[in-house]
Write a structure and sequence with these properties.
By secondary structure, this protein is α+β, with helices and mostly antiparallel strands. It contains three helices and 20 strands. The longest helix has 21 residues, at 171-191.
Length: 313
């Protein structure tokens, strides 16, 4: 459920944020602002006993001279002028799989009951995966490592199939990512209604896509060396303001041909949103759409930390 105002011009909304302990702060937001969506969604989840993943709100105030920071569980109410009612958060029930809108911290495409769940691709996208401080340190680290990136390749050595650059070793941040993924993995499995499994190695690499970079249709577990990969994850980060377009991740539904999973015609499209992470099954066929980066500058690239969670069996 999400707050929308279709075909209505966004308007200013005065929002008084009520916090635990009697604290409050008033800000003005546009009616279609993602921050307003997130604040309202946090309250709705609490009323439905569906807290989701904790979120750290970091809101500029005093014309950017200060910042209001608080964990989502400390939000107790909102006073809005003009009024925004929670009834507006009830969209029609979709008849086909849809992506939950980007303002919601955890995205899980909805699957109708009559569809074979094993053939429909599902993913979880989690917002604000790193703290603002961690993300800023990561960007600074990557920019200092520009000379150490090398061109990527594929196991089949196919030409013009993949264009990107990779940094294979970045111990200052790879262990942070692995530890964070281990901690959140049980929640991801629960949200996607998947059984637990014995976790083996978690692999990590740091990649960038610049102008006209892409990765054509493939999966991540189609060879004997990769057969134990269960989950693929992609963490997105970039400088602000974003200087590229494109680079969406397309995850295809499956069909079975000759006892193999192959790509169906239908797919989900995942936006490469800054400081979000996506999890999906490694057997899914997927691709990275071409990136447009007019400046062609290294610092303006679409950066990711991506990798795989392996089973031990």
């Amino acid at each position: 459920m999400t707050y929308t105002q279709p075909q209505i011009k966004p308007q200013d909304v005065k929002v008084k944020i009520l916090l635990a302990g009697g604290h409050q702060c008033t800000i003005t937001l546009k009616s279609d602002a993602p921050l307003l969506h997130n604040l309202v969604k946090t309250l709705v989840d609490r009323t439905q006993q569906n807290p989701g993943f904790p979120t750290l709100f970091q809101i500029p105030i005093d014309e950017g001279r200060s910042a209001l920071c608080f964990p989502s569980e400390h939000l107790v109410g909102l006073v809005t002028e003009p009024p925004i009612y929670l009834a507006q958060l009830q969209p029609p029930q979709p008849e086909v799989p849809v992506e939950i809108p980007p303002e919601i911290p955890l995205e899980i495409p909805i699957i109708p009951a009559h569809v074979n769940d094993d053939l429909i691709s599902r993913y979880a996208q989690i917002e604000n995966f790193l703290t603002a401080s961690e993300k800023n340190k990561l960007i600074k680290y990557v920019l200092a490592k520009e000379s150490e990136f090398v061109s990527t390749s594929t196991s089949t050595k196919a030409e013009d199939y993949r264009r990107s650059m990779v940094l294979h070793s970045f111990p200052e941040f790879s262990q942070l990512m692995i530890n964070r993924i281990k901690a959140i993995l049980p929640d991801v499995l629960r949200k996607l209604n998947l059984p637990s499994f014995s976790v083996g190695d978690i692999e990590a690499q740091l990649t960038l896509h610049n102008d006209n970079n892409y990765y054509k249709l493939h999966n991540d577990s189609g060879s004997p060396e990769t057969a134990t990969r269960f989950f693929t994850y992609v963490y997105y980060f970039n400088r602000e303001p974003k200087a590229f377009t494109g680079g969406e991740l397309q995850i295809y539904d499956s069909k079975i041909e000759n006892n193999f999973y192959v790509a169906a015609d239908s797919f989900k499209t995942v936006e490469p949103r800054n400081n979000s992470i996506v999890f999906f099954l490694s057997r899914y066929m997927h691709e990275v759409l071409p990136v447009s980066c007019p400046s062609k500058a290294f610092a303006d690239s679409r950066f990711t930390i991506n990798g795989w969670v392996r089973r031990t069996d």
